[in-house]
Amino acid sequence: MNKTYYLLAAYAVTWIIHIAYLGTIVRRYQRLQGEIKDLKKPGPRS
Amino acid sequence: MTAPTGITRVTLLKDLRLEWRSKDAINSMLFFSLLVVVVFSFSFDPSAEESRQIAGGLIWVAFLFAAVVALNQTWARELRNQVLDAYRVSPAPPNSLFIAKTLGNFIFVSVLEALMTPLFIVFYRLRALGPAWQLLLVAVLGTWALVVNGTFFAAMSLRTRSREIMLPLLLFPISIPALLAMVQSTTAILNGEGARFWIVLLATYDLVFTTVCLLLFETVLNAE
Amino acid sequence: MKKAFPILGVLTAILLIYALYQALVVAPTEKTMGDVQRIFYYHVPSAWTAFILFFINFGASVLYLIKRNPAADIVALVSAEVGVVFCTVVLITGPIWARPVWGIWWTWDMRLTSTLVLWLIYVSYLFLRRFSSSGETPALAAALAVLGALCVPFVYFSIWFFRTQHPQPVMGGGGSIDPRMLHVLLINWLAFSCFAFLVCWSRYRLESLQREVDHAHALQSLLDPRGSVR
C-alpha cells in the first residue's frame, strides 16, 4: 500500500511542475496585456 | 606586425608583463591558493591510503577554484581600459586575441597549480604509485580544458549582471566530463592503475572545445 | 492558426487522460517492482521529450548563428525552457521511483547522472539568457548552446566508462520490455509530445508578444521628448 503513494506522488509532482510552468506563462501574458493597454492609452503628457 | 602569430605573441607578452607588474594580483592569488589547500586539509584528514583515493578530486576542485578567480581577473582589466573596443575595430583576427588570452590564463593558472601541488603532496602525504609523468600530462590537458572554456565564458560574461558568478555558473556544467576525466585519471595514476581512457578523453575534449571556441569567439567578441 | 489552439488543447487533454488511464489501469503490473513501476510511463516519455527539445535548441541555435533569424532565437529560448521543465520532471520522478524500489533516493547511475548534467548545462543557458544585458544576447546564448550540445556526447561517454569501472544499480532496468508496456509507453510519449508542443507554442507566442511590447516601449521613449511614461 505504501508503495502506491510513491506512484501517486510521482504523477502528482509531474503535473504540479507542468501546471506551475503554465501558470508563469499565463501570469506573464496577463501582465503583458496590461502593458499593451497602457501603451495604447495616450500618455498624460502627450 | 599583422601576422596572427605576431599579434598573439605581442598580446600574450603584454598580458604577462602586466601581470608581473601588478604584483598585488599575483600575491593575492597565491595566498588564495595556499588558503584553499589549507582549508581542504582541515576539512579532510585522511590516512595515506585514503588520501590516494580522494586527493585527485580535492586537488582538481582546488585548481578549479583558483582558475575561476584567475579568469575573472584577466578580462576585467581589458574592460576597464576599453581595450576590447580597440580590438574589435582593429584588423587583427579575433582568434589571435583569444589564443593570447587563453595562453596567458594557462600560464597563470599553471603557476598557481605548481605552487599548490607541493603543498598537497606534503599535507596529504601523497606518493604516486603510477608513472608521475602522466600526472604532468593530465595537469596540462586538464588545465587547458578549464582555461580554454573559462576564457571563452569569461568573455561571454563581460556584459552580464553578476559577472563574477556568471563565469563559474557557465563553466562548471560544461566542464563536468573533463573534470571527471581529470579526477579519475589522477586517482588512477596515484593508485597505479590505467588512466589511458581518461587521458584520451581529455585530449579529445581539449581538441573539440578549442576548435569550437576558436570558431565561435568572433561571435562573442562582436557581441559585446 | 490561433483558432486551432483551443481545439488542439482539448484533444491533447483527452489524449493525456487516455494515456493516464492506460498507464494506471491497462498496463500490466510489473513482477518485481509492482505498481510503483508505473512511474516509468511518466519518467521515460518526459526524458525523451526533454532530449528532443534540447536537440531542437541546438538546431535553432545553429540556425541563428548562421542566419541571425529572430524566430530561430525565440525557438531556441522556448525549447530550452520547456526542455528544462521536462528534465526537472525526470530528475524528480527518478528518485521517487528509486526510493521504494532500491531504498535510496539517488544513485549516480548512468541515466540519472547524465540527465542531471544535461539539466545543469541548460539551466546555465537559461541563466545566461536572464542575466546578459548585451544587445547581442541571442548570439551569445546560441554560442553557449552549441558548446553545451557538443558537450553531451562527452557527458554520456565519460559517465558510461565511469560506471563500467564502478558499477551501480541501474535505474529503470535494462533489457527487453513487454510489448504491452511498450505500447502504453508510446501512447504516453505521444500525449506528452503533443502537450510539449502546445506549451512551446504558447511560450513562443508569449515571447513574440513580449518582444513587440519591448520594441514599442523603446520607440515610445525615443519619440516622446519628455521621457517615457514608465
**Strand tally of chain B:** 0
Shape label of chain A: rod-shaped
Low-confidence region ranges of chain A: none
Strand content of chain A: under 5%
Rg on CA atoms of chain A, Å: 20 Å
Largest sheet of chain B: none
Beta percentage of chain B is under 5%
Going by helix content, strand content and strand pairing, the class of chain B is mainly alpha
* Helical stretch tally of chain B: 8
**Mean pLDDT over the residues of chain B:** 85
Q: What helical percentage do the residues of chain B reach?
A: over 70%
Q: How would you characterize this protein structure?
A:
The complex is a heterotrimer of chains A (46), B (224) and C (230). With 46 residues, chain A is mostly helical. Chain A has one helix at 2-40. The radius of gyration of chain A is 20 Å and the shape is rod-shaped. By secondary structure, chain B is mainly α. Chain B has one domain (4-223). Chain B is 85% helix and 0% strand. Chain B has helices spanning 4-21, 23-43, 48-80, 83-89, 94-124, 132-156, 163-190, 196-223. The two termini of chain B are 26 Å apart. Chain C has one domain (7-29, 39-223). Chain C is 78% helix and 0% strand. Chain C has helices at 4-26, 40-67, 70-102, 110-131, 137-165, 179-223. In chain C, helix 4 runs antiparallel to helix 5 (137-165). Chains in contact: A-C, B-C. The B-C interface holds B 149, 152-153, 156, 159-162, 166, 169-170, 172-174, 176-178, 180-181, 184, 197-198, 201, 204-205, 208-209, 212-213, 216, 219-220, 222-224 and C 65, 117, 120-121, 123-124, 127-128, 131-134, 136-137, 139-140, 142-144, 146-148, 150-151, 154-155, 157-159, 161-162, 165.
